[in-house]
Structure prediction request, 473 residues.
Amino acid sequence: MQNLSPRLAVAADLPVASPASQPSGHAAHPAWLRLKDAVEALRPLQSKDGSIDLAAVQRQTVDPLVDTVLTAVAELAPLFPHDAEYLTAVQADLRKWADTGYREPDFLDSLLAFHPAAQRSDGLEHLVLFPMYTQNGNPNRNLEAVLLQVVWPEWLAELERTRFDNPMFVPITFTDFTAGYDTNSAVLFPETVAVRKAPERFTWGGIFCDREAARFRAVSASAVAQLGLEIPADAEELLTDQERAQQTFVLWDLVHDRTHSHGDLPFDPFMIKQRSPFWMYGLEELRCDLTAFKEAVRLEAEGYPQGRDVQYAILFDRLFRFPVSGDRVRNYDGMGGQLLFAYLHKHDALRWRDNRLSIDWDRVAEVTNQLCGEIETLYRDGIDRPKTAHWIAAYQLVSRYLTPHPASTWAKGPEALPLDITDGKALNKALCDAVVPDEFPLSMFYEALSKKLSGVIAATTGITGAGLTGVAA
Prediction:
């Protein structure tokens, strides 16, 4: 590929913009501001499960705050007529919570009344209020309030109708939020809400493409500059364009999300319900991303400009951000990023020489799709294997490209594993317990890259893309 651009320049003091700093529209509405203040005042009063201990907190402190939330929701509700049933149910659930003496909250009724996937319309706004934890954010079930907008351009709607059916997928952007989302969380999932019992099935899942896009732009631009990587001109344009990056992520997320239930699957696609060695989760997430990559190659050939952008986004996010984000305890996304790098490196589609990274842009798609094929073969063969044999085969695939921890029991081969345990549940536990927390440590390349990128990755906490600067040609 020609037209390689020079390195991007990245400002050292990359700012993280919060929508709360310059409120406008519904975010500037007095009722919303009162709602936010009341929720933030309730936060330190709540326990981990969302309850409030009235033996430690006076009720006359709590009741006025909840009343403020109630009146604010009632005042804002006419702005969201499409959510009338839900917002009415939220108020009822708040009152029921107060009536219990603020025991562990139960917002099942309002959760069942919220149906954002049933009305996917570009720019449609929602007011969301739930006691919930935020993935990659706040682990406690605090009351959280979010103003958001749906992203559903016609080209995406057409692809979903004709090729990538995914009726539960809802791409969204932040308008404003309370402290639980001033974090790394980029999802709004119903399973995080405090309820008396889990619904029989969930009908929607929201992903904040603006946070994903802004984080991608900041980290990728820094990595490109730090590593001396020459990138195609259209890749540079992607890294400098927030709206274009958001459109990229809605397509990536659409295909990734549906892939969890498509293909030759030897197991329940919702692996969170199972206990498995963490590389199984890493391979599943990587399979979904590489499937999105493969589909993006096809879309590019058909004339969709977003297809090429998705390929860049998957490569850069997986190669640069994933391996060096989070801790090293069962970091399955980090492992998947390391695996992609090692695979490209071993097949000479990526090189690290003279302290500069280079990518063979003419071969990288072919080699990436080759890795996808290896994982698909693993899955297809796994249908005919017992679970233990499938775990071992998956480990062997990963360890062909990544070096295991020197103290690893798994690396010694099946003969070192406690395979004499006859009880299936006990065997599964023993095999998982034998996994080293950092089974596949960072390579020397990634140890160095982690030090270079740690600052910019930390700075993306709470990022939304509003007012994002510091990434320029």
